[in-house]
Amino acid sequence: MMDLDRMKVTPRDQQVLDLLVQGCSNKEIAGQLSISPRTVKQHLRTLFLRAGIREGRKRVRLATAAFEKAEVKS
């Protein structure tokens, strides 16, 4: 399991992650945050690298970790 508390996650990264967890596409995330889809991809790429994720398919692991963290806070 991934420990998001040990990763550096900026407030904007967290917004992107929250929308990813909700099932939003990059385009939907971009629209909601008023940023470009390319910027969304860059946030995700940076998060994946910090999390040690080298393959796009593993983004679900990052989303799951973010979801579990959100559940603990509720």
Can you give me a brief rundown of this structure?
By secondary structure, the protein is mostly helical. It is built from four helices and no strands.
Give a structural overview.
This protein has a single domain, classed as Winged helix-like DNA-binding domain superfamily/Winged helix DNA-binding domain (Arc Repressor Mutant, subunit A), CATH 1.10.10.10. The protein has helices spanning 11-21, 26-33, 37-51, 59-73. It has 74 residues and is an all-alpha fold. It has four helices and no strands. The protein is globular. Helix 1 (11-21) packs across helix 2, helix 1 (11-21) packs across helix 3 and helix 2 (26-33) crosses helix 3 (37-51).
What labels would you give this structure?
single chain; 66% helix; 4 helices; Arc Repressor Mutant, subunit A
Describe the secondary-structure layout.
Elements: H1 11-21, H2 26-33, H3 37-51, H4 59-73
Helix pairs in contact: 1-2, 1-3, 1-4, 2-3
Question: Hey, roughly how much beta strand do the residues contain?
Answer: under 5%
Could you please say which CATH topology applies here?
Arc Repressor Mutant, subunit A
CATH architecture descriptor: Orthogonal Bundle
Structural class: mainly alpha
Q: What's the CATH H-level superfamily name? A: Winged helix-like DNA-binding domain superfamily/Winged helix DNA-binding domain
The CATH class is identified as: Mainly Alpha
Q: Rounded to an integer, what's the Rg over CA atoms?
A: 11 Å
Unreliable residue runs: none
Measure the end-to-end span.
Answer: 20 Å
* Count of alpha/pi helices: 4
Total beta-strand segments = 0
How many domains, in number, for the residues?
Answer: 1
